[in-house]
Every structure is written in structure tokens, then in C-alpha cells.
Amino acid sequence: MCCFSFDAKSNSLDSLLKLESSLPNDTNKIKVLMEISDIYIEVSFVKTIKYSKQALRISNLLGYDDGVLESLLSLANAYDYIGRYSESQEMNFKILAIYEADNNIVGMNNTFNNIGIIHYYLGNYKQAIEFTEKALSYFIAENDSNGMSICYNNLANSYSDELDYDKALVFYFKALAIDEANNDLGGVSLIKGNIGEVYIEQEKYDDAFIYLISALQAAEKTKDEWQQANVFAALGDLLSRQNKLYEAISFLLQALEINETIGAKAETGEIYNAISKVFEQKGDYIQSLHYIKLKNEINDELFSEESSGQIAEMNALYEISEKEKEILKQEAFASLQQTQKTALIVGSLIGFLLLFIIVGISVKGNLNKRKTNQTLELQKQQIETKNRDITDSIQYAKRIQGAILPSDKFIKKHLKESFVLYLPKDIVAGDFYWMDTKGDDILFAAADCTGHGVPGAMVSVVCHNALNRAVREFGLSEPAKILDKVTELVIETFEQSDANIKDGMDIALCSLNTATNELQYSGANNSLYIIQDNELIETKSDKQPIGKYMNIKPFTNHKQILNKEDKIYLFTDGYADQFGGEKGKKFKYKPFKELLLKNSNRSMKEQLDGLANSFNNWKGDLEQIDDVCVIGVRI
Q1: What pTM was computed for the model?
Q2: What pairs with residue 434 in β-bridges?
């Protein structure tokens, strides 16, 4: 990160904040803002982002290039740390453009490495490897051993996550050789820990133990508590896989103590989860449940501390699918039924024997029956715990999915006259709505991913991320070009798997220019309705989805100038496909159009209420069959 000559670090935070508020928008104010940002990076990345953004805005106004670069670097780092990887990547590409314009080779290659790291976090391993290799080529040419070690380690991480453990080890050992030659104990500890974890996955447990102990010794010499906790956790994992459960818990508790001391809350939650699993292996379900509760509590605490925009990933949605949920329930209840059947037989035998044997045997039989009942009660607790964990995971996933949707405040800020009717069929949904801005253009969409519930929500994560990347990373603003790029990104994501995944998305995507009222639209199987002068005009979509398709063609871009009071409607198929009414038939699109037209002159709030009431009245007591999403906008 470049540094300013202005010396403000001797000032306290309070004095800097007072100074900043009194300064005009000049370069000195930018320097103070960045000093405030640097101080906050130790305690609040949210505030780091706030002050870096302010510095960036003023730097752009003044054409102050150093300030622009400084604030972008700060934002990229802060976004990375809190997991907002798309935003971090957007900053990285802007930084790269600056370095390329200045022909700053060192800056370019450092940024290549940072871009590769973010691609790794996003699971885009192909791109991660591509950018890291660019940086590596430069560091090799410059004989920069530190840069080479970092790149080798990052390449190894990508290959490890792709399960190519042999290639991962090649790069880990290259990095290790450099760090050992440089006597970089921190690097040695990190890489030996990574090597140990690969050996665990390869079930080479003796080798894993050797490298993890060596990593721990190096971390203790450098007094790196965070790395010590990581190694203790890995040792716990190793020993639990070897069924050495008491030793596993011992190491996990050491990791827990460190993480609690240093305030590493996310890591603490992971350790709670790991300890719970070991107690479950031991058959100590009470302790297992205790640590599951602690894990859920810390997850809730972490969630409440973060704003919705800070959650870029939805890994919780991947924890369990609906099919897996049903299998788990079936297995659990089958187990309970078998236990109950056995108990019934045992009880019958005891009852028969009671007729013929002495009172002492009767007492013994009653004791056996009590023991059986205790077993049943424990089995019941196991089932309830598993079901509660499933429900908790999905409920938590719902909160995270809700967090990536644009907030009501954000929507109303840019589209004052608008509404969103969003009715998921299950706890989480395959339908989602999306919004972003680019200059005077407001981009918004209603999307329907394959399936609903957890499977649909999993696909929606991929598609939502692809929309963000198309606009923020690739700089696209024309709807048709955005959908072309999203199709490419979605196919690329699913092709990383060996499975033949054909899931995708139907979508209606609009771009409204607030200066000219020009509307651009492109759609994948989802049309656009515009109401002008009490007439509904339909613009039809391209008849192809986002995703794998036999004959993919470029999407069509439609343009038109809208007038004041014109209404725009985007929607998925859930509303029109809902069964209901007196005969239990589909609602269909013609009545849907008529309903929109009938209510179009009412306020947007009244239109929203009217659509919701009509849907519920039509559905009646029948089950909702699909997710519902309808967006309305008045010019």
C-alpha cells in the first residue's frame, strides 16, 4: 500500500475525527481519512470501508491519483477480510487498471496474486490458478523468493481444494523449501500445517502427525496463537479419524481455549462443531448437543454483528439438501421403529414370564424394561437433535439468503415508486430478485432458478454471484450482454464438477436510465410487461434458459423510451402456475395480465397488497407449488 507524507499517526482517533470534520475536501482531508481508516482496520472493517469510500469519492472529485489508489487498496483488503469477495475483486480490477496505465509491473503482479486469492475464495479455482501463475512467472524472473513462496502456497491451496493432492504437495514443498532457506518460521508453520492437512485427506496419518507437530513447534516459537489454534484443530481432526477420541478432544479444547482468548469467533464456532462430532462418535449425545448449541449461539452472534451486505457466500445452503433431509429422517425414524418393535417383543416376553416366574425375576424384568425405555428416550433425543440441526441450518440459510437480496431501503432509494412481491414456497427459495447500479443505469431482475427450497437456493447462489460478476468484474451494463456472460459463468461453474449438472435460471433483466427514461430489457424465458395508457404491452423473452442448452444463441436486447406514469412488471412463473379457485386449476397468464392492468392506477403499495391478497384467495387451502416473485416499477 502506498503511503502519504502527511503525518497524522501521532494523533489520537478522536482528534483525527475532529480534524477530518473541520477540513475542506482537499488532499489533506483525504490523508486524514486514510489514517482513520488504517486505525479502524484493527477494530472495525465496516468503518474502514466507510472512511475509505469517503476518501475515494473526494480523490475522484479532485483527480488525486495517489488517493484513489490508496483508498482502493484499503477497500480491497477490508472487503476481503469480511468475506465480501465480489466487492474485493471489483476493487482489485480497478487497482490493476491503474497499475497497467502506469506500467507499474510490481503492482500489476502483486494484484494478479490478490485476484487469484479472491478467485480461490470464490471457488473459481481455474481462474485462481491462472492469475497466480501470472504473478509467479514475474516473481521467478525477479528471483523474489517471498513472492514465489506465496504463489506456490496459493497454487497448492487451489489444487488441494480441487482434490488434486499430489500436485498440491508439489507446490507446498516448493514453498516450504524457500521459507526454510529464508528461516521464515511463520511461513514454515503455515505450510507444514497445510501439508499435514493434505496428508490427513490422503489418510497418511503418521506423516500428517509429523508435519502438524513440526508446524506447531514453529508456531510456538513465533508466538503465533492463531496458527497454534489451527494446528491443534487439525490434530483433533486427525486423531478423531483414528478413533483416538479422548486425545482428539484434548487438542480441540486447546484450540478452543486459544480462539476464545484471541476472540476468533468464527474459528471458535468451527471448534464447537468439531468437538460436538467427537462426542457424537463417543456416544455422549448430551455433550454433543451442548456443543451444537454453543455453535449455534456463536453463529447467531456472528450473524447479528454483520450487516446483510457483508455476507457474500451462502455455504450454509450447501449443508443439506431436501433429499438428504428426507433420507436422514427416514433412517432415524426407521431406527426408532426397529427399537420400538424390539421393545415390544421384549415387553411381551417379560409379560408372559411374569405369569410363571417368581417376584424376583419380575423385578429384574421391570429393570430391563426401564433400561429399554431409557434407550428409546435417548434415541428420541438423537432424532430430535438431528431434526433441530437440520431446521436450524435451513433457517440460518434463510437469513443469509435474505441478506444477499437487495434491502428495501436500497430499492426505494433508486426506485422510489416500486414494489416486490416475494413468496418463497419453502424456507429458502430458488426465486430471487436482484438489483445493482452503474452510473445513471439501475439494473434490476426477477429470477427463477431450477427447483425450489434448498436445491433451488443452491442454484440461486451460483446465478446471483454470476450476475454480480458480470456487472462488477466484467463491467457490463447492457442486459443482453450481461445474460450472455452470466450463461458463460454458470456453465463454467457447473462444468468444474464431474457431475452432468443442467440446472440454470429463467430471468427477466432490465436496465433503466434515470436521466433519459430509456429502458433496456433482455429475458431468458421470462417476458416483460409494460403498461402504457391503460394498455398492457408484452415484450417476449428469448426461449432459452441461463445454463446448458442445446442451441445457445446470443440474447436479444430490447430498448424503448418510457413516459412518466408508465409501469414495468417483471415476474417468475410461480404466480401464474399456482393451482386454486373453485376447480383447482392454474391461475394462468391471461388473468394475471388482467389483474395487473386492473390495479395499475393504484399506488404501488396497494398493487402489492392486491397481488398478495388475490394470490392467497386463489390458492385457498391448496399447497403453494412454486416460489413467487413479482416486481413492479412506476416511472
Answers
A1: 0.43
A2: 445
